[in-house]
């Protein structure tokens, strides 16, 4: 008797010290002949993957295509990771896909796969009747579970220093690990580090792939600027939208820019209320984009996972922060509260602990990770506000 999808997933560890890069290829090899394979866009990078991928998926879906978007992690419910034709997958769809996948792979192989590997293959089953599948890589690129299938296009979003233990210590090493996942065509988003472009040129040359550099015609900049103002987007979301449009152009998929007006980017510089924004960013690159996007000083509701450079994040946000309210989070990877306190003191910002009170005369930014946003939403009992 096999477990239900929920139970099966709960029994999988989320993190592994050592990762076996072969097993997902073995599992995909077993699955491949049982499913259909839509055109696939692979989104790889450090920041902006979720919003860029969702923009591509949303616009393609609005143009009349059947579209799936696989992203991670989720904020409140796993279903957010497997978005199909304009909405999160239902429990029933996930359960049916699980029964089928488990049946094809068998118990031993299904149980050996990591949480991310199994759910990536599950997405392939959910999306098999789509015209387009948008796949967001997890940590890396080259060795990521999402890198098992053929891609029509790879989109490389801004690359920064993150997950060094897995990806390498330098920008060149991290960029190499990510960009080596490309096949025939690659679109490079605007980058903070020049080294990323050099690495992209080298790898595309070796692979004989076509490299497209991000460009945005001035009339498009104007159109996106109007939408961004209406939707209260920061400038980095305009850049991500521009990359998404260019990706659709390369794929020869038609779209209406105005359809971005109906896009919900929950958790991405998202205005939860008039005075609270939530953002799932968690590294210095994300902090830089948010600092630029904020037009007034905020109370920062914050915490961090222990593998992040939280001191650099706080230093970057400091010009726009009145004071910090630390929100404890429940994760085995959370930094100890005393370490967060030490970093805030070192950067020189006043702080206290979040007690669930929101002053209507203050502006708030909830930032630091998916866990921080989830904890805040649960505390505020705002679940009814989450766009379904």
Automatic annotation (TrEMBL):
<keyword id="KW-0067">ATP-binding</keyword>
<protein>
    <submittedName>
        <fullName>Bifunctional folylpolyglutamate synthase/dihydrofolate synthase</fullName>
    </submittedName>
</protein>
<keyword id="KW-0460">Magnesium</keyword>
<dbReference type="InterPro" id="IPR036615">
    <property type="entry name" value="Mur_ligase_C_dom_sf"/>
</dbReference>
<keyword id="KW-0547">Nucleotide-binding</keyword>
<comment type="similarity">
    <text>Belongs to the folylpolyglutamate synthase family.</text>
</comment>
<dbReference type="InterPro" id="IPR036565">
    <property type="entry name" value="Mur-like_cat_sf"/>
</dbReference>
<keyword id="KW-0436">Ligase</keyword>
<keyword id="KW-0479">Metal-binding</keyword>
<dbReference type="InterPro" id="IPR001645">
    <property type="entry name" value="Folylpolyglutamate_synth"/>
</dbReference>
């Amino acid at each position: 008797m096999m477990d239900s999808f929920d139970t099966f997933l709960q029994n999988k560890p989320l993190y592994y010290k050592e990762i076996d890069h072969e097993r997902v290829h073995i599992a995909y090899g077993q699955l491949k002949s049982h499913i259909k394979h839509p055109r696939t866009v692979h989104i790889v990078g450090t920041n902006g993957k979720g919003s860029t991928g969702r923009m591509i998926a949303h616009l393609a879906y609005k143009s009349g295509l059947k579209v799936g978007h696989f992203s991670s992690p989720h904020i409140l419910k796993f279903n957010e990771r497997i978005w199909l034709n304009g909405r999160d997958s239902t429990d029933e769809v996930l359960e049916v896909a699980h029964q089928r996948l488990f049946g094809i792979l068998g118990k031993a192989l299904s149980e050996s796969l990591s949480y991310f590997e199994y759910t990536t293959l599950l997405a392939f089953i959910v999306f098999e009747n789509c015209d387009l599948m948008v796949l967001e890589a997890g940590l890396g690129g080259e060795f990521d579970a999402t890198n098992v299938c053929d891609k029509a296009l790879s989109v490389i979003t801004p690359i920064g220093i993150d997950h060094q233990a897995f990806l390498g210590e330098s920008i060149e090493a991290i960029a190499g690990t990510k960009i080596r996942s490309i096949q025939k065509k690659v679109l490079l988003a605007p980058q903070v580090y020049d080294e990323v472009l050099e690495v992209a040129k080298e790898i595309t040359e070796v692979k004989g792939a076509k490299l497209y550099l991000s460009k945005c015609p001035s009339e498009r900049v104007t159109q996106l600027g109007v939408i961004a103002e209406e939707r209260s987007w920061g400038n980095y979301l305009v850049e991500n939208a521009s990359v998404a449009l260019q990706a659709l152009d390369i794929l020869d998929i038609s779209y209406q820019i105005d359809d971005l007006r109906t896009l919900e980017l929950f958790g991405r510089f998202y205005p939860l209320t008039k005075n609270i924004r939530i953002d799932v960013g968690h590294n210095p690159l994300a902090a830089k984009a948010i600092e630029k996007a904020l037009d007034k000083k905020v109370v920062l509701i914050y915490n961090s996972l222990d593998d992040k450079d939280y001191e650099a994040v706080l230093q970057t946000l400091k010009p726009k922060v009145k004071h910090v309210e630390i929100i404890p989070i429940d994760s085995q990877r959370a930094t100890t509260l005393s370490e967060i306190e030490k970093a805030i003191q070192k950067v020189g910002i006043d702080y206290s602990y979040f007690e669930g009170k929101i002053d209507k005369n203050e502006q708030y930014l909830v930032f630091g990770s998916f866990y921080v946003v989830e904890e805040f939403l649960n505390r505020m009992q705002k679940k009814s506000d989450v766009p379904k």
